[in-house]
Amino acid sequence: MRDIINLWDWDTLFDAFPSIFAAMWLTIGLTFACYAFALVFGIVWTVLRRIPIRPIYWLVTFIMNFIRTTPPLVQLILIYVGLPDVGIILGSITAAILGLGIHFSTYISEIYRSGIESVSKGQWEAATALNYTKFQKWTKIILPQAIPPVIPMLGNYLIIMFKEVPLASAIGVSGMLLMANIYGAKHLEYIEPLTIVAFFFLLMSYPSSLLIKRLEKKMNRRFEKKVGSSDNGKEVTAS
Amino acid sequence: MTEPIVKYTDVHKYFGDLEVLKGIDLEVMPGEKLSLIGPSGSGKTTIIRMLMTLEQPTSGVIEVEGEPLWHKEVNGQLVPADEKHLHKVRGKIGMVFQHFNLFPHMTILKNCTSAPVNVLGISKEEAKERAVEMLEKVGLADKMDNYPAQLSGGQQQRVAIARALVMQPKVMLFDEATSALDPETVGEVLEIIRDIAKEGKMAMILVTHEMEFARDVSDRIVFLEDGVLTEQGPPEEVLGNPKSERLKSFLERFIQTSTSN
Amino acid sequence: MFILAKGLDITIKVLIGSAVFGYLVAFVAGFASLSRYGIIRKVTAVFVEFFRGTSLIVQLFWIYFVLPLPDIWTGIVAISLNYGAYMSEIVRGAIVAVPKGQTEASVALNMTPFQRMRLVILPQAVRMMLPEFGNYLIQMLKATSLVSLIGLADITFQAELHRSVNLNLGLQIFFLLLVMYFLLALPLIGVTRWLERISSKGVASR
Question: Residue B137: which residues within 8 A CB-CB, separation 6 or more?
């Protein structure tokens, strides 16, 4: 099955570059589309799991675990190849957004949950004592405290999503990977186009991950600073 | 005859199989200052948390100004209240928590104006006016642009008191308001509560371990043990001349621990 | 499901191979990233960032076309290098997270650096790594499905093959395939829970 391996050739590299570069925008666009879908669908899971009926909680949790512990590749194929059997025909890009979006929404939902749980019970109680409505409690008190600490984690998932998007080449989304493989099949030169793809991924995901790390540090520092200055406050009142 | 502002009738509370309140009957008059004392785990905090709608009574009725809190009357029958009913009655109650529970993402001023604007629906200007007045009362108007984490525990609790006062409740609850504070800041908070008590308009229910303070501010002291109200009366009587052995030993133990500290 | 089961041996072989080599890579790279020699740390950092920064599926194809390995080894090498790079961060993080007082106490007991690592630091660090290692085992199981793309006859490959001759059964076949992966994951979830229980004991608190 494997094609002939040629040695590195710069001409091939330049020849393959334009089509892969053009496909980069699709890969990036698809990443954001899948991510946006996951962010929104993550809310759905989080809300469903907060319904105070045990069987619903169990069922939703089971479905989430099922989605999370099975391969996204197979989920993509199921949506793209399997759903037409019941009359649902989706384009490959739509199928990719749906498949990867739903798969990662289960992870995003866990992040939302950890953010919400990080808000102490006392905050809910104080909000009740001040007679906020349920909606106001969420929008004014809980979410403003739950979201900022998890922003770096959410950012990490954007990078993870970016690296999972080439899975969509398996259902025919012509992103960078598929273009490289097409070029390879046509010219029997795989190394150069695939190296370009790897290079692009590294070029984009490495700086982004550095950015996230800095964001994380900044968040931690802000937290520590608050704690530190409260100590100063104590000294002032004690004197 | 004035009507009581708060009335508990045969209130029971279970946590799982554990019965923490075994039939509480209690009336609080408008403007009355009532202290709840008793060993920890006796159910004092649960009594006021039920009034703040943070815990639901297992059975019995709690009324606020003659109106059931956890129930509402439909065709002469008492049915469990919905959130709308709770929202209406809850507006008459305010609470100061042991751990302050200020909102860390809001400035001191915003902590005091957010609820008036969003819950009472008053204008931002008016809310600010009220908030500044209350912050002056607790001596922290100069800190209004700071965040809670920049304040000491005692200062945070004073802000929490101001925040509750801005809502102008008819009954104010204090849940061990000084228990989580450093010893050196307890005094400043007790001072504020004492001042508020002197103004006399609001009814106040205080859960406290500060016996001297309770003697000072209360019109009446209630001793609670194992979920039962066992003794009550004016401070001099309850603290000065305890009738039951349990209360006697509780007070003795208390004096011992507070002098040994 | 029986038809899919034909690919089971490949899926399990790739999983076990990837796990063994993945953990090995993780420990080697994890220790190397804490080396006292700057050059070793730098080389390790480049390796880790390369395999974390590019996509597993891209690496798989790259290795497939570049390295003349038997197909099953292509899968194992790609998955173990990729996940090894991720897990090396866990190894490093866990070793760093053992409180400084533990090192100081073992210095006070006059242990050699090697003894400190073997007797005091590692036993605690490994406990911290275990739950994450369990989670990554499930991730690696999911990743084995990628080898179907390079023509290895794992369960995903068998499902595609089966579907190509039963065109109207796609939904059933792939749903059964997901169920199969879930059943394979169940014991791994059990292992992870067990590892979490073990790791909750016997670690010094700060």
Answer: B162, B165, B192, B195, B196
Tell me which residue in C49, C58, C189 faces A177 most closely, judged by beta carbons: C58
Q: What residues of chain A lie within 8 A of the CB of B102, using their CB?
A: 126
Count CB-CB contacts under 10 A for residue C133: 21
- Judged by a CB distance cut-off of 8 A, whether residue A11 touches chain C is no
Q: Which residues contact C168 (CB under 8 A, 6 or more apart)?
A: A85
Alpha carbons A182 and A94: distance in angstroms, whole number: 22
**What structural domains and CATH numbers belong to chain A?**
25-176 (1.10.3720.10)
Q: Where are the domains of chain C?
A: 4-199
**Please, which residues have CB within 8 angstroms of residue B103's CB and are 6 or more apart in sequence?**
A123, A126, A141, A145, B110, B111, B114, B148
User: Helix, strand, or coil here: B10?
Assistant: strand
Q: Name residue B171's beta-bridge partners.
A: B93, B203
Neighbours of chain B (3+ CB pairs under 8 A): A
Residue A191 has pLDDT above 90, yes or no: no
- In this structure, what token pair is assigned to residue A98? 């749906």
Residue found by looking up tokens 């600073």 in the block: A225
Q: Which of B93, B118, B151 sits opposite A136 (nearest CB)?
A: B118
pTM metric for this prediction: 0.83
| A66 contacts chain C (CB < 8 A) | yes
Say whether domain C4-199 belongs to CATH 1.10.3720.10: yes
* Intra-chain end-to-end CA distance of chain C, in Å: 51
Measured CA to CA, the distance from residue B37 to residue B242 in angstroms comes to 13
Report how many Cβ contacts below 8 Å link chain A to chain B.
Answer: 81
Mutating which of B118, B166, B175, B179 best tests the A interface, going by the most A Cβ atoms within 10 A? B118
Does C149 contact A170 at a Cβ distance shorter than 8 Å? yes
Distance from CA of A118 to the nearest CA of B (A): 13
| Residue C97, min C-alpha distance to chain A (Å) | 17
> How do B220-225 and B33-37 pair as beta strands?
parallel
Judged by DSSP in three states, B171 sits in: strand
In this prediction the ipTM stands at 0.89
**Residue type at position A1:** M
Which residues of B are less than 8 Å from A123 in CB distance?
A: 101, 103
> Nearest-CA distance from A52 to chain C in Å?
26
Distances (CA, A) of C130 to A30, A68, B37, C141, C192: 35, 20, 49, 17, 8
Q: Cβ–Cβ contacts within 10 Å for residue A86, how many?
A: 9
- Give the residue numbers in C contacting A (CB under 8 Å), as ranges: 49-50, 52-59, 61-62, 64-66, 68, 138, 141-146, 148-149, 151, 156, 159-160, 163, 168-175, 177-178, 181-182, 185, 189
Both tokens of residue B215?
């003697």
Q: Where are the alpha helices (DSSP H) in chain B?
A: 44-51, 83-90, 108-115, 124-137, 153-166, 183-199, 211-217, 235, 245-260
Per-residue pLDDT of chain C (206 residues; tens, 9 = 90+): 667 788 999 999 999 999 999 999 999 999 999 998 999 999 999 999 999 989 999 999 999 988 888 889 999 999 999 999 999 999 999 999 988 888 888 888 888 888 888 888 888 899 889 989 999 999 999 999 999 999 999 999 999 998 888 888 889 999 999 999 999 999 999 998 888 888 777 666 55
